[in-house]
Predict the structure.
Amino acid sequence: MFELVKVSFFLNIREVRNIALMVLLPILLTLILGVSLSSVFNESNSNVLSASRWLYQIEDSASGEKLKEFLETYHTQLNMEVSEQANYDEAISSVSNSGVDGYLIYKNETITIYKNEHSSESTKWLEIVFDNYLDRASIIDGIVDSSQDLELLQFVQDNSMNIGNRIELLQIESTRQPNAIGYYAIAMITLTSCYSIVVMILGLSEERRKNTLKRFLLSGKSFFSFLLSKSISTCILLLAELFVVMIFDTFIYRVDFGDAKCWLTVLAVSVIFAFAVTQFGTLLSLLFKNLMALNIIVNAALLPIVLFFGGAYLHFYKLISMGLQNIMIFSPVYHVNKGLFDAIYLNSYEYIFKFCVLALIVSVLLAEINILLSRWRGNSWAQ
Amino acid sequence: MTVLKVSDVKKTYDKKEVLHGVNFSVQEKEVYGLLGPNGAGKSTLLNIIVNLITEHSGDVEIFAKKISRSSLSEIGFVPQDLAIYEDLSTIQNVSFFGSLYGLKGKVLHENCEAALRMVGLWDQRKRKPSAFSGGMKRRLNIACSIVHSPKLIILDEPTVGIDPQSRNYILESIKALNQAGATIIYTSHYMEEVEAICSKVAIIDDGKIVENGLISVIKEKYQKNNCYECILETQAKIEGVFPKELIADISSSDNKYLITFKTDYINIKDVMALVTDKNSIVSIGKYRPNLEDIFLDITGKALRDGDS
């Protein structure tokens, strides 16, 4: 099997298409999209995901429970994602890395908000909401200043705790900031991983067309070991190509991928994701008779749709309705991007770890289906 | 020793039976020809023999063991279509396919050299097949199939569409492989090739073997007592040599005539008694049919594409 992995890898790197797809495309698109859409990532808007992301720590008290309930119930209307973070240092680190927009602490009936200088417009709006949540006095200013959701402000006004304390804002200096190039560099890494499906399908197609697959089977090797070898060689190719892309991004585009741990995470996640993708490609290949037609369908329809709805190409939430935003969660690309951002800018590996576990489970399931299919279609597929 | 035994093999595609209980066996060191027109079931039969088609009835035994993935290392199959990597060099191709059989290191290198020398490509080992002629690619195709020194080599029309020089090279290589101890199964559209290298043949038509045995025995069997080959003097005409009313059919090429009489004549003397102008005859004898004639006789079909 090792020999086929070696030869497949060798043949793959000789394919100009593969190099163009998996090295030149992400490098060029990162530059083109990053520069052309950099206006979306102006200084006051560092939020590259679909919602404002907040961490909170709320004391155990009656008013604290009320605030927590408020956050957890209405965070969607507030266009924010919230998660509890009791570790102060980690939370502050996330804010300074620009991984989140703010860190909210409620203690002694006072809300303290930590934010960095890049916190977005939405953060200001949230400050007004929280401010009004505590004291209805400034509601008019809030409406005038923000021109935001009147209905929501009305709700806040009606449910105000009216405890008289004001909000305390603390600004901390951000050390890292995802800019447009940074965002697209990560998005393009995900895109490159997705293109493993094309490499896999083309690889299988070529082996079948050239009859070399027949020779492999004639040597007594199983069809599944052939498929596994091709998947492994595709993933190794991806790893090598991503390494080149990341080196280029880091030293030419000055993208900050974080420390060595972040680098390794990006590469490992990409390979795990690519393995799941190649298993899916194998499944499609076993189901379709005409692999060249399948390749066209994947290139022209499947990948653009999955990537588009995963937010890989565009800064999405600014452009589409909430209904369409809800579709994004069905695209694995969205989760890879989000997970990588968590890891790089939030120092949080929980989301990406869960994603990797899920991707591995899916890979194993797909591989099992492929074993069954390869036994069913068996050697006739090779002919 | 029986190298290959095929017993009552049947295969159905879409409810249509394409092999109807095929039986034959190949002995050690034989060169066995498998003949049949397109669509006769040859490729299906070969794919069953090499375990590429596993769903069939009947048995295939290699060296007295039922065919399985583990016994495939005993077989070298040369597919009709080229099965090589054009982006790898000649030696890389052979080496890769050798490594699939577990060969490595010095043994692999020695086997690669032997295989490439056998097909006359050792001097071209560093070149890529993309720069090769069709004949050279076919020779490389053979080298990739014999690198693991199989005891049974199956060649599926290895000389289709190549120049005479490469064809001769391939035929000589096959003879050399046989002399080195390999058993050969050879399919081809070219009867003269089969006659030149095979000792036994099986003729397959419509999914069944219609004739099987030693070529000399088959030729003897299909020799006809009313068919004679006659060479006349340049100016002589056949109508002046044999009474017209005794002849059923005549075909000629230059001054060479193939005469089919209306009745059988076992002895040449009986035929000579019919001759009216003995001086015009250069030579005369019973016509010995070649494999192509026999094939046409048995199947009613020509073997090569385009013939009818």
Remarks:
- The radius of gyration of chain B is 23 Å.
- DSSP finds nine helices and 14 strands in chain B.
